[in-house]
Amino acid sequence: xxxxxxxVVGILVIALLVLNVYPAFGAxxxxxxxxxxxIPTPMGMDLKTTASLLRDFIKGNPRTKPTDVLPMGTLDASxxxxxxxxxxxxxxxSALLLELDGKTLLLDPMFGRAPSxxxxxxxxxxxxxxxxxxxxxxxxxxxxxxxxxxxxxxxGSIKRLKDKVGRFYVxxxxxxxxxxxxxxxxxxxEHDWWQESEWDGIIVSCTPARHFSGRSLTDRNATxxxxxxxxxxxxxxxxxxxxxxxxxxxxxGDKHGPFDMTFLECGQYDARxxxxxxxxxxxxxxxxxxxxxxxxxxxxxxxxxxxxxWNDPVERAWNEAKRLGVEMTTPHIGExxxxxxxxxxxxxxxx
Length: 351
Prior knowledge:
Layout: H1 2-21, H2 47-59, E1 87-90, E2 96-100, E3 103-107, E4 140-144, H3 155-161, E5 165-171, H4 175-180, E6 188-191, E7 196-199, E8 202-207, E9 227-231, E10 236-239, H5 248-256, E11 259-265, H6 280-290, E12 292-298, H7 312-324, E13 327-328, E14 336-338
Parallel strand pairs: 3-4, 4-5, 5-6, 10-11, 11-12, 12-13
Antiparallel strand pairs: 1-2, 1-14, 2-3, 7-8, 8-9, 9-10
Helix pairs in contact: 5-6, 6-7
Protein name: MBL fold metallo-hydrolase
Domain Metallo-beta-lactamase: 105-300
Organism: Tumebacillus lacus
């Protein structure tokens, strides 16, 4: 009995050491409070729901990953310098490269192989490569993060990016992770919901989302989660981060809309956790609430984090957008599109 207790204690001690020492878990935020959503957001993890999830994960779905290599464009680093035209390039999942008023910004640049503190054991990225390697990127004027989950804030990506980046914009508490990973405190600007910063003529506004945060067993909701409004001289875009559907989209649309383009979560959903990840039909409605002109679905085509078919999110959103008369653009990963164009890509390449 004593031997068993010693083994258990030993395992607990090792686990605590890993949580506190292993850098990928990030840092403990300075505040001691917990953040909350604007409206009640239950995640439905009762015994019945948990049992049904366990059953479905054991059963599996062979269509959660593509069987063919996904089409991918290639970025030329030499053309990413100082162009005034507003452009965006999608890297898969929620990672975007935004060119605006001569500035280059990265949004949730998760470029790692798996959304996990231990990438060798996490769910592998669908593609073997990226449109451009981190080392080949030019100087990045700013990086914006929506929250600290592994599929958005990646330790390995930050270590490789940080010396190229001028400024980081993050929700409250997330800066502690970056500082632990070697980013200087004076490069980081933290925001609460509805706070904004002006930076060389570009205004970044931190806006609500309906989600949660945390990177380990002990830091649930210890940092804030958010969406972002990014406004240049002539172009304004909205980036959702992760969010369930809620009245905040209408509120943001009323306060900051209309938007030339919305980048909206569309994937990794399930009816059992719809409060924190929108269903595709809700994604299209969120775009309408925001008063967006053109919608780009994100949070899909890179990782499997749910049980639906890998291309189900974009197919359902495509059909709903047609029903509601919403213009939805569907670029390939690595394909650069001009915001405000009269000829957005609309191919159904995922079929």
